[in-house]
Amino acid sequence: MSKDIRIKKGLNINLVGAAEQTTSKAVLSNVYAIQLSDFHGITPKMIVKQGAEVKAGEPLFYNKNIENMLFVSPVSGELVEIERGDRRRILTLKILADKTQEAFAGAALDVEKASKEELKAALLKSGCWPFIKQRPYDVVANPDATPKSIFISGYSSAPLQADLDYVLQGKEKELQAAITALGKLTPGKVHVTVGSSGNSPLATLNGIELHKVSGPHPAGLVGTHISKLDPINKGETVWSVSPQDLVIIGEYLLTGKFNADRVVALAGSSVKAPKYYSTKIGAEISTFLYASGVNEENFRVINGDVLTGTKSKPDGFLGFYNNTVTVIPEGDDYELFGWNKPVFNKISATRALTFSWMQPNKKYELDTNTNGEHRAFVVTGQYEEVFPMDIFPMQLLKACMVKDLDEMEQLGLYEVAPEDFSLTEFICISKQPHQKIIREGLDLLQKEIG
Amino acid sequence: MSLKSKLHELKLKYQGKKMAPAFNAFHTFLFSPDETTHAGGTHVKAADDLKRTMNTVIMALIPVLLFSMFNAGYQHYSAINGFPADFSVMNDFLTWDNFWIGIIKVLPLVVVSYGVGLLVEFIFAVIKGHEVEEGYLVTGMLVPLIVPVDTPLWMLAVAVVFGVVIGKEVFGGTGMNILNPALTIRAFLFFAYPTWMSGDKVWVYGARERSEEILAGANVDAISGETILGYLAQNKGAEMTYSVSDMFFGFIPGSVGETSAFLILLGGLFLIYTKIASWRIMVSAVIGSLVMGLIFNQIVDFGWVSESSKFYGLMSFDFWKHLIVGGLAFGIVYMATDPVTGSQTNKGKWFYGFFIGFISVMIRVFNPAYPEGVFLAILLMNVFAPTIDHYVIRGNIKNRMKRLKNATIYPKDSDGKAEELKAETV
């Protein structure tokens, strides 16, 4: 039976510069890149050498621990550079794109008839598997495990995030193929959530458990849905896929081709004309950033939304999972008596001479200033106001900081991903790095318990 | 060159040096820092920081401080000249003479409290190389408001050093302490210098000197500076001339800032409204004290204590009046709600607050030698707060364990294959 989700605890961060719902075609990028930082915890082993010619969808490297998990090139071209960091760790693979694109031929599958093993093998071989993320640990799913359920969130509640209802229009066929395939990978249900007032193409699919969600952010995060519908226990696995990645999976299953096309929202108060661009995974951000124009000299480009994205540059590359690029002003300036004067132009979860509570619908131009210094945890009871899970957020953070494995387990670390702590980090008066603390906690737990 | 860029240059000059925390404390007081969010976290942050939070509490204390400065003078002159016959706030209370007593008696307490306390904070910050933390901004304001007006300044200084070092810094500074530093200071004063902290000679400026003069043979009237609780503890409630409105608005003797329940109530409402202090703690503490007061009233109604009992005066005191005399209201609003030393879970806050109110009134009634229990009650509950939280969190963990029993854990695919292989070989 489908269950609707209503979130009360949370906070909407309304920012200036939402993307207008028109899509332009981005200029073709010369160079495309796969950034290894997108795949947390994966050690790559190269398949092709530097200088080799690859086709779109041809494997570049595999996962050292799970050797049949392949990662493929988004375009055809020459692998021109393998950027390495400390201890020769691979950071970025850069591919110089060909003028005429050639696709690496895989095999289309009849999803209705294919068995679980066939589907798994196809997804692993095609480079589609890394789109499937798992909890616990918030990493690329382990194909060896069987998830008790699969979650797909079709509702975007994060600030300035691409509107999934808009970008998924007309992709019903691919979505249905991917959903049918995923449904065979779990004995449980495929939970799909859509906004209660939207018209998502996801709502029309078969073989899903549809839920409508409403409420402030984090109403759109899968972590919220999992905790309300089917919370994770120790030993259980839950998978999640973002809907735009489903389209790529679905297209591969239908045609046998890995199509890295993606519609991206370019948003933020520093963008002159925020709107959508159609481009490919790994494309240079500058290929569409300057088409819209930027307002100021000193800005920050974020791969993703302002709460969970990664810092990038205009000549950086679109991330593997990202469908949003946000550009906001840098805030590296002092503010006279910034700590005690009344504040009208920033968002706050309190009313301590901050007035954002008076205008809940006002849109703000926030910059990257921390608005204060890092301190020990002092204030209590505020995280709970924006944290809808049945978890004690501060206690879990402290357990991660002191590396107490028992406490981490008991307080529910298996159920969370760093992104679930993005709102608590945003409002944190002590300016603690919540997502980093949770990430390190998850890594430790995975290393020790596995 | 502007002040901003000059300070920025100085900051770069001090960077990594020993005195950097001291400089940064002044710098961040003037300018909120130019720090930006870094990798691996949110790129934007909310407007509030710890300085703003602490500043809000101080704002809620300013009316109380101003009132207490006038009240110091009002109590002093009333003790000498008698209470004015038909009292008017403008003519008898808000006068320059009264305020002057405040300036010479209350302001020095504030200056010493901040001066000594911040000095200790700066020394520790420089030695340990961390930033100067904001916790003392509130503590420094609370301390002068919870001591008797005649407290010698050197005593206060000694107590502040003790409270900040032992109460806070040894645990690692703001956010790490177990006991409320302001109450640690108060407790130190109480146990180290009891004659200066209780009795009927310390609550009004001049009372002690006058009594010493009388002892020396001077022919003047003694000043009585007995508090309401003091009267009641001696079963002298009938001699008391204070009306309920005196108690509520605070025209009574007592610790410097504790007397005006009215202004404390306003401060409490402000703190709840700004979401800085926990309404759960305040409400449950009020409930707790009313319940204990009612229990005592009932005991009197049933005739279980005789009028000659030394507890009679306080036990028969109307239960709701406990909230408007003594330091209970001040303690509930400004001290019990300290987030570091209080319960940290929302459910725990209800228990924590309730017991603070409950035990405060209990100590009040059963300790006639020193009829003020709120600071001991809060310190006691500070110690128990982690235990309360422990059981609240246990409840959450228990639910998770219950869920675990119905977990659907599937074997790994590779496990299955191992089984198959085994079956084939057998």
Automatic annotation (TrEMBL), chain A:
Domain (NqrA N-terminal barrel-sandwich hybrid): residue spans on this chain: 5-97
Domain NqrA second alpha/beta: 115-258
Keyword vocabulary terms for this entry: Ion transport, NAD, Sodium, Sodium transport, Translocase, Transport, Ubiquinone
One Pfam match: NQRA_N
Keyword Magnesium set for record: no
Domain (Na(+)-translocating NADH-quinone reductase subunit A C-terminal) ranges: 263-312
A molecular function (GO) term: oxidoreductase activity, acting on NAD(P)H, quinone or similar compound as acceptor
GO biological process: sodium ion transport
Keyword hit for Transport: yes
E.C. number(s) listed in UniProt: 7.2.1.1
InterPro entries (alphabetical): NqrA, NQRA_2nd, NqrA_C_domain, NQRA_N
Catalytic activity entry: a ubiquinone + n Na(+)(in) + NADH + H(+) = a ubiquinol + n Na(+)(out) + NAD(+)
Subunit structure: Composed of six subunits; NqrA, NqrB, NqrC, NqrD, NqrE and NqrF.
Family: Belongs to the NqrA family.
Function: NQR complex catalyzes the reduction of ubiquinone-1 to ubiquinol by two successive reactions, coupled with the transport of Na(+) ions from the cytoplasm to the periplasm. NqrA to NqrE are probably involved in the second step, the conversion of ubisemiquinone to ubiquinol.
Official protein name in the record: Na(+)-translocating NADH-quinone reductase subunit A
Name of the gene this protein is made from: nqrA
TrEMBL record, chain B:
InterPro entries for this protein: NqrB (IPR010966), NqrB/RnfD (IPR004338)
Chief site of localization: membrane
Residues that span the membrane, as ranges: 57-79, 99-124, 136-166, 248-272, 279-299, 319-337, 349-367, 373-393
GO terms for biological process, alphabetical: respiratory electron transport chain; sodium ion transport; transmembrane transport
Keywords: Cell inner membrane, Cell membrane, Flavoprotein, FMN, Ion transport, Membrane, NAD, Phosphoprotein, Sodium, Sodium transport, Translocase, Transmembrane, Transmembrane helix, Transport, Ubiquinone
Membrane topology term: Multi-pass membrane protein
Recorded family membership: Belongs to the NqrB/RnfD family.
PANTHER family in alphabetical order: ELECTRON TRANSPORT COMPLEX PROTEIN RNFD, NA(+)-TRANSLOCATING NADH-QUINONE REDUCTASE SUBUNIT B
This protein's name: Na(+)-translocating NADH-quinone reductase subunit B
Biological source species: Maribacter orientalis
